[in-house]
Amino acid sequence: MTIGTGGEDVNNLTELIEVLSDCSQELSASAQTGNSITENTADNVTEMAASIQQISASSQQVSGLAQQAAAQTELGSDNLSTAIMQMEKINSSIEEGVTLINQLNIDAPRGKPNVDSSFLETSLLST
Questions:
Q1: Residue extents of the structural domains in the chain
Q2: What angle do CA 50, 55, 59 make, to 5 degrees?
């Protein structure tokens, strides 16, 4: 574009103004698109932050429940151990009782046992 005289300069200036106007409109549209993208990104970041907070709260709740389950499992294990020890004591007592009954039968006069030990062994050991 060269600067000439009169009407030609006005035409060139008019074309230049139109080009600048078009560029300005494109720049404005690009800026609006950029603003829209920035707003969407900000909204997405806000949503992600809320989701992360929910996940954190859920994780804390799960951790608490896991600790409760562990404590209850330990208590159950202790109770089971106690029950096993008590059953072993009962079994030992029954065995002692059977031994004493058998000893009584050995010491009893022949032909008349004091106690039917086979009946007692079967009934005591089956419980």
A1: 7-125
A2: 150
| 104 within 8 A of 115, measured Cβ to Cβ | yes
Identify the band that residue 56 occupies on the pLDDT scale cut at 50, 70 and 90. very high
Q: What is the DSSP letter of 3?
A: -
Residue 10: helix, strand or coil by DSSP? helix
* pLDDT category of residue 117 using cuts at 50, 70 and 90: low
Query: Is 1 within 8 Å of 16 (Cβ atoms)?
Result: yes
Q: Which tens digit of pLDDT belongs to each residue from 14-32? A: 999 999 998 999 999 999 9
Tell me: pLDDT of 127 over 80.
no
Question: Which two tokens mark 88?
Answer: 């072993």
- How many residues would you count in the chain? 127
With a CB cutoff of 8 Å and minimum separation 6, the contacts of 108 are: 114
Three-state DSSP at 88 gives helix
Say how far residue 71 (Cα) sits from the centre of its chain: 16
42 half-sphere exposure, CB direction, 13 A CA radius: 6
